[in-house]
TrEMBL record:
Keyword Transferase applies: yes
Name the record gives this protein: 4-aminobutyrate aminotransferase
Taxonomic lineage of the native organism: Eukaryota, Discoba, Heterolobosea, Tetramitia, Eutetramitia
Keyword terms of this UniProt record: Aminotransferase, Pyridoxal phosphate, Transferase
GO terms of molecular function: identical protein binding; pyridoxal phosphate binding; transaminase activity
TM regions (residue ranges): none
Family: Belongs to the class-III pyridoxal-phosphate-dependent aminotransferase family.
Length: 466
């Protein structure tokens, strides 16, 4: 009797659970619930994805697949759900999900540090690590380290930079006003120097000046002159703790800093005892054909910030530097509950293994050159529309002539691309598309994407009657 009475509620519970699970699995249900996300979160698409693999994201409800040349904004560098990364996550999930770094030591973190030391870090000149969750958090901690080390207050950043959306990092961000609008006054002590954006440089019109690939070009060094003027007018070297730079501007337009500029910046930091911080959140882990973009210039930063592609989709970030730049931070001044999470560290180990074993750096270089060549074909085909093709490896941009195409042209191209099942992103205050496929992308996928892009430019041109 007792059993029969208990079984009816149990059957009812099973029915409700099955019904709820079925409802929550439906795309219409998910879309309805997503409406309750904060309105400040923008959405590029209106479909629900249940799975992704390699270079594609799938909309199973409509039996469609999208070629993803966004990589979650430079996160899934190894492609979606790379088997080696998935295996590393699965193996770790049954052992330890979280071991707080202040309390226990865990194997995935130790293994990751070993792999980073062996594979990544500039001839072992950077040897000490700190792990966090996001790029913004890592940037903030790097700034704290620099201030602890130098006992100075001020920081220099560059025009067009993006370092995050927290109060401190949006104070360092100058790529778009939307990231800081309505939040003044911001963190004090931040000073902005011009970035060597060759396409918009005042010296670009000089016949003797050559802009182009940053490894081959010779920077006019006008931005360095402005930086030295800033030292005389806004913050003296003696009160400047750090110079923080993206070796390739991200949100600012995918603009590589010239080699000569980076080398001079290193010399200035050495001369004045300023900490050189490289923000490689978006440029790291093979995106430019090297593990880190700083390797192209031969410049070793004092502190290097990493995130995004480090764990192929799991939240993990870090700062690496020479021990002397970190040992001045008092015990307890740096930390975080989830920093160096065991599962995320395992994913990062799997990511490095996949990159190494499958030659993804070489592929990023080879396919980057090929993609850039195809994009230059588009530039030649549309000389009145396309002003610049630039970038490094598979971190490339197409900038349209803003004065000719008008506001919103790049967004129109991206929207047209979505109709043709290609995911693209815009960037910068100028009319610019950023193109960031997985670093193991195939030639066939590159050709598909470029053909679609060419078609979408034609469509956008027709729509606004250019």
């Amino acid at each position: 009797m007792f059993i029969r009475r208990a079984s009816r509620p149990l059957r009812n519970l099973q029915y409700v659970t099955q019904k709820y699970s079925k409802e929550t699995a439906s795309h219409s249900y998910v879309l309805d619930q997503i409406k309750d996300l904060a309105p400040a979160i923008s959405h590029q698409t209106n479909f629900v994805t249940d799975r992704a693999q390699g270079s594609y994201i799938y909309d199973d409800a409509n039996n469609e697949k999208y070629l993803d040349f966004t990589c979650g904004i430079g996160v899934t560098n190894t492609g979606h759900c790379h088997p080696k990364v998935v295996k590393a996550i699965q193996d770790q999930a049954g052992k330890l999900l979280h071991g707080q770094v202040n309390i226990v030591n865990h194997a995935p973190m130790g293994t990751l540090i070993g792999k980073l030391k062996e594979k990544v870090i500039f001839d072992k000149k950077l040897d000490t690590f700190f792990f966090a969750n996001s790029g913004a958090e890592a940037v903030e901690n790097a700034i704290k380290m620099a201030k602890h080390y130098t006992k100075r207050t001020n920081v220099i950043v560059f025009q067009g930079s993006f370092h995050g959306r927290t109060v401190a990092t949006m104070s360092l961000t100058t790529s778009k006003i939307i990231y800081r609008v309505g939040q003044q006054p911001l963190m004090s002590g931040v000073h902005v120097a011009p970035f060597p954006y060759c396409h918009h440089c005042v010296c670009n019109s000089k016949p003797s000046h050559t802009c182009g690939d940053r490894i081959e070009s010779d920077c006019c060094m006008d931005p360095i002159k402005h930086l030295k003027t800033l030292f005389k007018q806004q913050t003296s070297p003696q009160e400047t703790a750090a110079i923080l730079i993206e070796p390739v501007l991200g949100e600012g337009g995918y603009v590589p800093a010239p080699k000569k500029f980076m080398q001079e910046l290193r010399s200035i930091c050495d001369e004045h005892g300023i900490v050189f911080i490289a923000d490689e959140v978006q440029t790291g882990f093979g995106r430019t054909g090297k593990y880190f973009a700083m390797e192209h210039s031969g410049v070793v930063p004092d502190l290097l910030v990493m995130a995004k592609g480090i764990a192929s989709g799991l939240p993990l970030s870090g700062v690496v530097g020479n021990k002397k730049f970190m040992e001045k931070s008092p015990v307890g001044s740096l930390g975080g509950t989830y920093g160096g999470n065991a599962l995320a560290c395992a994913a990062a180990c799997g990511t490095i293994d996949a990159i190494e074993e499958e030659g993804m750096l070489e592929n990023a270089t080879k396919m980057g050159e090929y993609l850039r060549g195809r994009l230059n074909e588009i530039k030649k085909k549309h000389p009145s529309l396309v002003g610049d093709v630039r970038g490094e490896g598979l971190m490339l941009a197409v900038e349209f002539k803003s004065e000719d195409v008008g506001y919103g042209f790049s967004s129109a191209v991206a929207k047209n691309a979505l109709k043709h099942k290609l995911l693209l992103l815009t960037t910068s205050i100028y009319e610019t598309l950023r193109i960031i496929p997985p670093i193991n992308v195939s030639k066939e996928e590159v050709d598909i994407a470029v053909d679609i892009l060419d078609k979408c430019i034609e469509e956008a041109k027709a729509d606004i009657k250019l």
